[in-house]
Amino acid sequence: MATHRLPPKVMGQLLKDNGFRKVKIFDADERTMMGLAGTGIETMVAVPNDMLAAVGDYQRAREWVKDNVTKYNFDGGVNIKYVAVGNEPFLKAYNGMFDHVTVPALKNIQRALNEAGYGSAIKATVPVNADVYDSPASNPVPSAGKFRDDIAGIMTDMVRFLNRSGAPLTVNIYPFLSLYGNDNFPLDYAFFDGGGPPKPVVDNGINYTNVFDANFDTLVSALKRIGFGGLPVVIGEVGWPTDGDKHATVPYAQRFYSGLLKRLAARKGTPLRPRARIVVYLFGLMDEDDKSVAPGNFERHWGIFTFDGRPKFPLDLRGNGRPAMPAPARGVRAYLGI
């Protein structure tokens, strides 16, 4: 959502230059898809929320798969791995608008993928927000995790289907948002570098020193509660903004990513899944200067790159313990006419 969008081929090259092997996009826009064609980058495409009701009709789901998956299944095409059915459709802010159309859409998209011969290679999933499990007030410790009462039945149906189809559950976790607007939230608890709050959250002998682990394990507990404690989980979004709030700064973002990337490189899981390799999509790649500023101005500054493709701070993207400035986008000056 930018006033000056970089050409898709420039974006595709930016991903390759920095060694990114996976990318998650929020639709299946043709220009974007052609920018990814030939890169080999594993791609998660998406059915937008406003199309969920439509693909609740199976014929429409078949057409969507034909137009947005089959179309790019050619030699040198797009390496599609997942289809995200909606984006955080159960958010409380939506007041139930998508509650009863999401799971039928999920089932139809996976059925259409299966019918088209992609079912073993491409899985449909639903990225959810962490608000699908109850608030910390209701879940004082991760082991108390359970799904919200108003969507517990829907989540159970959805998780049962994901388990049967061999797909992961996708969840977006934002330590920054735990901190945002809550002056009582302990700052160090948002990071991974061992500081933690003055008193760690203690749960059955486990000390939780960061909110990411506590949040993830709350979801694991909620899954266990409905009988699917082993379901794979993908982190669909996690990141830290660099402007627009007192805590949205480059030093804090660098601190957050440093800890996160070190964890990923060490293949260290969470206390309830200590040996699980966590797949994580960073949010996001680029700043978006035309994005809505609800709930705050920081919404336009989530990128690890500026809107014109310049890296903001060093990152240890290769997990070798040596942070370096990411490679910038190439060919941007000519595009912007500078």
Describe the structure.
Helix 1 runs parallel beside helix 2, helix 3 crosses helix 4 (102-115) and helix 4 (102-115) packs parallel to helix 5 (152-165). By secondary structure, the protein is of the alpha/beta class. The chain has one domain: TIM Barrel (Alpha-Beta Barrel). It is built from 9 helices and 10 strands. The longest helix has 16 residues, at 250-265. The strands form 3 sheets. The protein has a 4-stranded parallel beta sheet, with helices on one face. Strands 5-6-9-10 form a 4-stranded parallel beta sheet, with no helix packed on it. The chain has a two-stranded antiparallel ribbon with strand order 7-8. The chain is globular.
Descriptors for this entry?
single chain; 338 residues; alpha/beta; TIM Barrel; 9 helices; 10 strands; 29% helix
Topology:
Layout: H1 8-17, E1 22-24, H2 30-36, E2 42-47, H3 58-68, E3 79-85, H4 102-115, E4 123-125, E5 127-129, H5 152-165, E6 169-172, H6 175-179, E7 201-203, E8 206-208, H7 211-225, E9 233-238, H8 250-265, E10 279-282, H9 332-336
Parallel strand pairs: 1-2, 2-3, 3-4, 5-6, 6-9, 9-10
Antiparallel strand pairs: 7-8
Helix pairs in contact: 1-2, 3-4, 4-5
Describe, in short, the structure shown.
With 338 residues, this protein is of the alpha/beta class.
Spell the H/E element sequence.
Answer: HEHEHEHEEHEHEEHEHEH
Number of strands: 10
Strand content: 5-15%
Which structural category fits the helices and strands?
Answer: alpha/beta
Largest sheet: 4 strands, parallel
What average pLDDT do the residues reach?
A: 94
CATH superfamily: Glycosidases
> Which regions have little confidence, pLDDT < 50, spanning 5+ residues?
none
The general outline is: globular
CATH overall fold name: TIM Barrel
Give the class-level CATH name.
Alpha Beta
- Order of strands in the sheet with the most strands? 1-2-3-4
Q: How many structurally independent domains?
A: 1
Helix content: 25-40%
**CA gyration radius, whole angstroms:** 20 Å
**How many helix segments?**
9
- Indicate the CATH architecture: Alpha-Beta Barrel
N-end to C-end Cα span: 21 Å
